[in-house]
Amino acid sequence: MQNFVAIKFYIFMFSYLDVSIRSMTNTHVERSKDNHFMYWTMNNGRGNKNFVPPTTIIKDMTFLRWVKLAREADQTKLDNTTEHFYFMCNAAARDKGRTFISRDLTFFSTQKENFFITNVPANKGIQCRFSMRGIISECHYDTGRNMVGMFRGAKRYILTPPSTCDKIGIITDPSHPSYRHSLIDWSNVDEAREKGFDSVAAIDTIVQEGEVLYIPSFWFHYIISLKYSIQCNSRSGTPPRHDGKSHIEECLKLKLDFEK
After folding, report:
1. Please, what is the end-to-end C-alpha distance for the chain in angstroms?
2. What is the bridge-based pairing of β-strands 36-37 and 136-141?
3. Which member of 104, 137, 163, 239 has the greatest number of CB atoms within 10 A?
C-alpha cells in the first residue's frame, strides 16, 4: 500500500511539473558530451567569434523527455563519459505568482525580508535546476548571499572561502564567457594536485532533500548531483560589510562595484 501511494505521488508530481513547466517560456536544456557543465554566457559583451561554448543549448526537449533520461541515468548508473542533460527554469525577481515557481516557493519570492531573503530589492529571482546523476557544475562564486533548497534527490557541495581565489584557477577576465569560474577539473585528482589544489581549505557537505544550504557571498562552490535531483536557489545581495569582497578584488585585480 505504501509503495502504491508513493507511485501515485510521483505520477502526480511529474504531471504537475510537466503542465506547469510547459506554460513557461524561460526554460531550456543544456547538453554536455560528458558530465561537466561549465557556465557560459555571450551577453553583456562577453566572448568573441572564436569562443566554442562548452555545452549546447536545446530548446525543444520536453520536461517529460528529460525526466525519462534522468531516471534511466539513475537505473543504469550512467558514467561520466556519457552525454548528460541539465534542465533549467527560472522565475524573475518579484514575479508575484506569475509562474508556479514563485507561487510554490513563496519564501524565495517574498516581498518582505525573511530568513531566506534578507535584501528584497537585491533579490535575483529564483533559479531551478533539474539534474541528472553525475552532473558537475564547475566551481564559481556569486556575489549575492545564496540560499539553496534541495527539493528532490541530493547534491554534494564543496565550498572554499574567498581567500582561496588565487589557488583554484579562476577565470579573471570579465569579458570571458565563463568569468568567475574555475578552469581546474576538480574531479581529476592528479591535475588538481599538480596545480597545488590539494592544499586548499574546503568544506564538503551533502545537501539532502528537504534541506537548505546557505552559501555566503564570494564563497566558491563546486556541485555534484548524486542522482536525479531538483534544486532551487535565490540570492539577495551582499552582506553590509561585504565580507570576502576584498579577497576577490585582489585576486581578480579589479574593483567590484555592482552585483553580478
Report:
1. 49
2. parallel
3. 137
Total structural domains within the chain: 1
Provide the CATH number for the domain around residue 242: 2.60.120.10
Confidence of residue 6 (pLDDT cuts 50, 70, 90): very low
What's the burial of 150, exposed, middle or buried (CB within 10 Å: 0-12/13-18/19+)?
buried
**Cβ-Cβ contacts under 8 Å for 26 (sequence gap 6 or more):** 89, 90, 91, 92
Enter the C-alpha cell of residue 135: 552532473
Do the domain assignments include residue 258?
Answer: no
The identity of residue 253, as a single letter, is K
For residue 235, give the C-alpha cell: 540570492
CA distance 61 to 97: 25
In a domain, 193, yes or no: yes
d(Cα 140, Cα 4) in Å, to the nearest integer?
A: 42
Q: Is residue 257 part of a domain?
A: no
The three cell numbers of residue 115 are: 530568513
Domain that holds residue 51: 2-252
Residue type, 69: L
Q: Give the pLDDT mean for 47-55.
A: 89
- Looking at the domain assignment, is residue 91 inside a domain? yes
- The string of pLDDT tens digits covering residues 128-157 is 999 999 999 999 999 999 999 999 999 999
Are 76 and 132 a contacting pair, CB within 8 Å? no
Q: Indicate the length of the chain as a whole number.
A: 260
Residue in the structure block whose three cell numbers are 525580508? 113
